[in-house]
Amino acid sequence: MPDQIKTDRRFATTLGRGLSVLRAFRPSDDGLGNAEISARTGLPKSTVSRLTFTLQSLGYLNHARRHDKYRPGPALLALGNMASASISFVELSAPLMQRLADETRTLSLLLVRDHSKMLIVKTWRPRNVASLWLEVGHRLPFYGSSSGHALLGSLSAEGFDQTVEDADGDRGLTAERGQKVRRDAQNQLVTQGFVVSDPEDYFSPNIHAVAVPFHSRDLCEPVIFTCGAMPDGLSLKRMHADVGPKLCATVQELERLMGQGPSSAVREL
Question: Considering the entire predicted model, what is its pTM?
Answer without folding.
Answer: 0.84
